[in-house]
Every structure is written in structure tokens, then in C-alpha cells.
Design a protein that fits this description.
Blueprint: H1 2-12, E1 44-46, E2 55-63, E3 72-80, E4 92-95, H2 115-118, E5 123-126, H3 150-164, H4 173-187, E6 192-197, H5 199-210, E7 215-221, H6 234-250, H7 252-257, H8 261-273, E8 278-282, E9 289-293, H9 296-307, H10 310-313, H11 316-324, H12 329-339, H13 349-359, H14 366-373, H15 381-393, E10 410-415, H16 423-430, E11 436-441, H17 454-463
Parallel strand pairs: 4-5, 4-6, 6-7, 7-10, 10-11
Antiparallel strand pairs: 1-2, 2-3, 3-5, 8-9
Helix pairs in contact: 3-15, 4-5, 8-11, 9-12, 13-15
Amino acid sequence: MANYYAQLFREIRVKIVRRYAALLAPLCVAAASAYALPADQQGRSCHLPGFEEGLRCVSVDVPLTYPNDRARLAIHVSLAPAFRESARPDPLFILAGGPGEAGSDVLPLLSNTFRRARATRDIVFIDQRGTGLSGKLDCDDGDGADQLGEAAQDALLRACLAKLKRPFAAYTTANAARDIERVRLALGYGKINLWGGSYGTRLAQQYARLYPASVRALILDGVAAPDQVIPAGAHDAQAALDLLFQQCAASPACHQAYPALRREFEAVAARVAAGAVKVDMPDPRTAEPVQVSVTSARFLGTVHSVLYSALDSRRLPFLIHSAYQGRWAPFVARRNVASDLSAEGGAALVLHLAVVCAEDWPRLTPQLLAEDGRGAFMGNARIARLDEMCQAIHVPAVAWRAPAPIGAPTLLLSGALDPVTPPRRAEAAKRYMTHAQHLVAANVGHGVSQLGCAPRLLREFLDHPDLPVAAHCLSEIPAPTFQVGSAGPQP
């Protein structure tokens, strides 16, 4: 199939108008291609949330299931044309994380992370099938859902899954990779570069294995290894928390403020597990007084999410200590930030379940669960809830196959403090790559590309993917200071 696409492209190859002055002009597409966009779908100027500048929005028609299906999906594409007139022919396709995050959700990265790369290349954001503007699979929790217990929340989700009546089995990573190829052909590109973040690295690797002739280079940030089982992340999360405790102990100010931090964390976690924590607070939407139960799932989930960012994690000792003293308001406020109560968007939960329940859940063996949860603060409690949801969504298992080698030049980026995809995961992925280099940023958590000199390194790698990247500047990204009081982090 890949050879067929390559031959087809050579026969109908067209040029995209690349003049920056044409930013708001209709997007040129390969009209002669069997998969080219119809004349009435050649793109439109658009303004999307999170980015002030006008973009080109394109809708690409794809089969719901491959190779051919009468049922169709519309894949949304947001295209930011290169700044320079003499743009290079190989664009950079952006694949968001999750699974469940859409390309249109990460458009703010254009202003910083991809601005240098955009000088000479089109930047293409794809809303993966089932996310964002590509038929988002999600459930409306409704007002007050945050005050419900976990059993009630799960009941709402099961009811939502039953009402959706969608073919969830069609929303696999492999089908999402096939969608990318349809987008490439529709937009008239030859070889493309791909940037994937978190789960997007799994999708990028899948695409590179299905369509090796279409890939010029890969940038993978927060790398998911081919054999990684997404829900089995308790071991990595514990390693990140242990490292944070060690760094606090090594910081004179943090150690003086929180000399018994680990013991306080264990005491708070036990208190929450016993069901003894009720917090009276104003409702974030209505300001009416409500009582919130801090469950283990909410407590441990918030701790886990805080660890994603090195800057955010430096607030965790303060949050733990405050909760230990009975002042839960700072912790609940931080949890509300994570839930983003005011946002209309957010990750597509049902798409997340469709992917994870088909591709990861079947590989959760008792041995893996025992090894992953041993001595970890996350434990395996959330796996039991996943079992219920996967039985409700009822998707067939996707068989795991030994990964084929990836020959395209690949840049792997890892944060040493990452609680989800630490450097060991990138090293595991690198074993299946013949031309890869791995860079580790010591003071970074989940996601390197937007920090320090990384945007410049992305551009340098894309310009010369066969050359080593001089990455010493990543060591210049400073370690954030710890918060030791209500006023915020130390100056």
C-alpha cells in the first residue's frame, strides 16, 4: 500500500503556494489525486482558540475503517504556512498527546516551540480522529460532577458510552496513522517531518513504520516505548516523586521548611484513603458553598499531574505540608486548575478509553501489575476503575507485534524528572531505530521542546537531520526553586 501511495504521489505531485502574503488565500491542493480535496473543501482562513494569527483550516475525508468504508470521517487540519517565500518542501506535522488531545489544542506551541522551524517550513496540526474538531468522542459531565463520588462518576460515564453508539474499534492508533497519510496526500506534500509529544510519539512511530517512504525525520518528545503499557505508570511516577523528595532534602530552604516531607505525604495519603477528608469551599462555577470529598483517586491523580512539570512540582512540598496541617484549600485549588473547570475543550476521554482499552489494557498482565505497583504511591487502584470502563466500552484487543526498525533520522527528547515517559522509555524505543540520537534535559519534566534552547535545536535538527545535535545548552535550563510559603516560590 505504501508503494502504491508513493507511485501515485509521483504521478500527480503538485506545488503548494508558499508565499507568506498568501496566508489568507485558498490553500492549493492536488486536485488530480484520487485523495485530493474537492474544490469546495480546499481550505478556509480560520481563527482558532489559543492562537491569534489567522491559519488555514482544511477538512480531509477519510474512511471510518480502512481500507475502504462507506462511512466517513472528516479529519480537521490547521495549517500555518512558512514565513519565508523560499519555504522548504518538507513540512512539520504535529501530533498531540493523550491519547485524546487534538492538534488544535496545542496551537499555542506555534508562538514559541515551532516559531523557528516555521521560518522555512509549513507547520501542520492534525486533530486525530475522535479528538478536537475531528468528531470528538467525549462525555459532558454536567454541573456538579466534581462533587460526585467516584462510583457516581463512573456510572455517568458508562451511561454516556452506551448512548454514544459509535464504532469505538475504528479509533485505533493504526487508523490514526493512516489518516495522516491521507492528509499528506491531500495537501500535496512529498516527504514530511513529524513531531510527536507523549502519546503523539507512539502515533509518529506507528506512521513511520507503516509509511517509511513518506518520512524524512522524526522528533519525539516524551517518548513512549513500543512495549510501554500506558496505564502501568506507577513505577515511573514513584521514581519522580522520590527524586523530588531527594531534591527537597538537598535544598537548605526546602529541607528547613519541610524536614519530614516524606512522612507527611504518607500520613496525608493514609488519611485520604480512610475517607476522612471533606473540604468546605466555594463552588468554582457558582461560588455557592459546597463540600468536596478528597478521594484517593483525586488526591493521587493531582500529585501525579503536578509532577509533570518541573516548575509545578516545586510547589508540591508546600501543598503536602499544608494538607498535613489541615489546610486543604491550596491543594484543592491546584486540583481545580488541573481539571480546568472553565474550559470548553480538553482531552477527549472516550477516545482515550477507545485507544487504551484496545491497545494497552489487554497487556496488563498480573505480573506487570504486581511489578509496577510494588512500593508505588499510585498503586493499582486506578487499574480497577479502568477495568470497569474497558468492559463498558467493549473494544476488541489490538494484537501487539514486535516493532519493525525505523530508519529515518530521529531526535529523542527526555526530561530527567518525567513521571510518565522518563529517559529509560526513550532508550527502549531507540533500540528499534537505526539512526537516532537521544537528548536528556536534567531539570525538565514531561516535555522538553518548549524550554530553553530546545526550539532552536528542533530547527537545527530539521535542517540537518543527519548531523549530531549540539545539546549542551539543555544543561543551562535552570532547576526551579521550591515554594516554602504561601507567597510562592523563592525568588
